[in-house]
Specification:
about 425 residues, alpha/beta, Aspartate Aminotransferase, domain 1, Aspartate Aminotransferase, domain 2, 2 domains, 5-stranded antiparallel β-sheet, 12 helices, about 40% helix, binds pyridoxal-5'-phosphate
Length: about 425
Amino acid sequence: MDMQSMYRTLGVSPAVWQFGEDVLAGLKARFEAVDAVAEFNQAKVLSALQKNRVSAACFAATTGYGYDDLGRDTLEKVYADVFHTEAALVRPQITCGTHALATALSANLLPGDELLSPVGAPYDTLEEVIGIRPSRCSLKEYGVRYRQVDLTPEGGFDWEGIRAAINGRTKLVTIQRSKGYATRPTFSVGQIGELIAFIKSVKPGLNVMVDNCYGEFVETVEPSDVGADMVVGSLIKNPGGGLAPIGGYICGSAECVARCAFRLSAPGLGQEVGANLGLLPALYQGLFLAPTVVAGALKGAIFAANAYERLGFRVVPDGRESRHDIIQAVELGSEAAMTAFCHGIQAAAPVDSYVLPEPWPMPGYDSNVIMAAGAFVQGSSIELSADGPIRPPYAVYFQGGLTWYHAKTGILMSLQKLAEAGLVKLETR
Ligand SMILES: *Cc1c(COP(=O)(O)O)cnc(C)c1O
């Protein structure tokens, strides 16, 4: 059987397959650059594993208090070496990215302190953590103030606004690397470095935290290489490599991380407690695979951008831009097209491929939301997934793919469903 026939068994027609091949023919140089970053990061992770003498003893399960947990303590040293920080807190007890971020913020801000976001509004779930939307136990309830400086209309930093916002109370600055589901650009590590240098020139001694979600291993450097005092993220995104079933990480200065550990468990206990419950093999192996998994997801995003751009849709980032996270937005212009796109992604999934996603009124959103995900780990967005609110510009946010070939299949299937619904006309060159 040839390749085209193999794809046919998955539901991809010869015309869609050929369209995909035509798009891919122009992407060889882009893909080589992605592979070079993965190769560099693979060496970085491997060398951290070797330096810390990871052995089978590190994979043993612990229960109860988890005192003297060699595997857990070693994994934290490995993370600290990968991110070039003094310390790291990497735990299955950190339940998700929001939990990791909330821990880092609440551990390093005291009543009367001010938190500054110089990059506009933070990720949705942080609004309640900070108290932008009222919530029990928000930072605001504990007397921590919040100040925000929006980006310029062009998506750049408002240098003078940031200078003016930093005051005697400013204690911590939070920078979100990825655009998440906003329409601003994602920042490169280089841009984040410039911003941190500026902030620290205005007020030395300030701590800077970077929300690193979706950004890990997309470049050869991380925000912790350019002055961030803490980098924070989720293990069911990039650094878990698709294998971690739960968890979050905070890498940073010894003092910041020690405070986070006291906040996560209890003052005095810190990193000494927290049994690993047998999850460490997946956390180690997932980190080992993460650089190549991220590369596959990036290729999928680049392929999607170029395929949909060729069909006349607006895509963010565009087909040629350099990438700083794994998210791809495609503005499809109608509910019908969003639904067809998500049906294609779902039909390509290894799990729940027979399910038909439908728009539904998701709590916290003012319009219906459609989601496609058929993942081994529930809610994992390093696995192939797509979602978006049903409202103009009818954008779907597409991310992940544990292998490049699976991401490719998902995009081909999305094109297939749009073509079957008569919503696009594929012309091969
Ligand atoms: C996903 C994400 C979060 C929150 O992570 P959860 O694991 O969903 O709680 C925070 N910030 C950004 C930029 C994210 O992408």
